[in-house]
Specification:
With about 250 residues, the protein is mainly α. The protein folds into two domains: about 120 residues, no CATH class; about 80 residues, no CATH class. It has eleven helices and four strands; from the N terminus they run E-E-E-H-H-H-H-H-H-H-H-H-H-H-E. It is elongated.
C-alpha cells in the first residue's frame, strides 16, 4: 500500500479533478512520453464525457495558469495529461504555461523540462501530496492534515480516501482500518469485517461487493488502460482515474 519509492514525474504530477462527483480522466503513465496518435486525446476527439473547457478551467484555477492557453494547447494536438504536467511545472516554477510547453520537445522529457526550470522531484512530490490531501478532505471523512500525513508516508490516495470513509462508517481510527487492508482482501471485505452495512459500503468508492461487474473506482490504477485520469498519479499502481477508453465502466 506504500508506493512512493519508484515514482517518476509521471507518478508525481497530479491532483484530483472532480466533476459531478467523479474523477475526470486523463492519459495514463504508459502514454505519458509516447508519440500521440493523430488526434488522440486532443480537444477535437475527447470522449463525450470529457469537457475540455471545464477541465481546463479547473486546471487553470488549481495551478494559476491561463485556461485559454490550456484549451489552445489541447486543440492543437497537445494531450491533456501533458497540459497537466505543464501546468504543475508552471505553478512550481513561476513560469507561464506557454513558457513551459515551449520548453518541451521531442528530444526531452517532462522530467527534464521540470529540472531545467528548477522544479525538483521533491517539489513535485510535495505538490502532489498537498493537492490530493485537499481533495480527500473535501469528502468530509478525514482532516486535510491527517490525509497529508498518510500520503507523505506513502499510502495511495485511493486507499486513504476509502479507508477514511470506512473508518467513519465503522467509528474506527483510519490507521486501524488501513492496517486491515491486505493483498488478499478488498475494501468491501474490510468494511464488512468491521460491521459496516452493505448499503453503506455501496456508497463508498472502491467498496463494491464481489460479482457486481463494477471493476472501477474513482482512483483505479489504470494498468490495463491506454488512457487514464487526472487523478492523484499517473503511474501503475498509483491510482489514476478510470480510463476514458475503458471498454467496461
Amino acid at each position: 500500500m506504500k508506493d512512493f519509492n519508484k515514482k517518476t514525474l509521471a507518478g508525481i504530477l497530479a491532483g484530483v479533478m472532480v466533476f459531478a462527483g467523479s474523477a475526470l480522466l486523463l492519459d495514463s503513465a504508459q502514454a505519458a512520453d509516447q508519440p500521440a496518435a493523430p488526434g488522440a486525446a486532443s480537444g477535437r476527439n475527447m470522449p463525450p464525457r470529457f469537457n475540455l473547457n471545464t477541465a481546463a478551467s479547473r486546471l487553470a484555477a488549481d495551478c494559476n495558469v491561463d485556461s485559454a492557453q490550456v484549451v489552445s494547447y489541447c486543440n492543437n494536438g497537445g494531450r491533456f495529461h501533458e497540459a497537466c504536467y505543464a501546468a504543475h511545472i508552471a505553478k512550481l516554477s513561476g513560469k507561464s504555461f506557454e513558457t513551459v510547453v515551449q520548453a518541451k520537445s521531442d528530444s526531452n522529457t517532462w522530467e527534464q523540462v521540470a529540472e531545467g526550470l528548477g522544479v525538483t522531484q521533491e517539489m513535485l512530490r510535495a505538490d502532489r501530496c498537498t493537492f490530493m490531501a485537499g481533495w480527500i478532505a473535501e469528502q468530509g471523512n478525514i482532516s486535510e492534515n491527517e490525509a497529508l500525513q498518510l500520503l507523505q508516508e506513502g499510502y495511495r490516495g485511493f486507499d486513504v480516501e476509502t479507508a477514511a470513509a470506512v473508518a467513519k462508517a465503522a467509528n474506527k481510527d483510519v490507521r486501524d482500518v488501513l492496517a486491515l487492508k491486505k493483498l488478499n482482501n478488498s475494501w468491501y471485505d474490510v468494511g464488512r469485517e468491521l460491521g459496516v452495512e452493505e448499503s453503506v459500503l455501496q456508497a463508498v468508492p472502491g467498496c463494491n461487493p464481489p460479482g457486481n461487474g463494477r471493476h472501477h473506482n474513482r482512483w483505479n490504477d489504470g494498468r490495463h488502460h491506454g488512457q487514464g485520469g487526472y487523478g492523484p498519479g499517473f503511474g501503475p499502481g498509483d491510482g489514476s482515474g478510470p480510463a476514458a477508453n475503458c471498454p467496461v465502466r
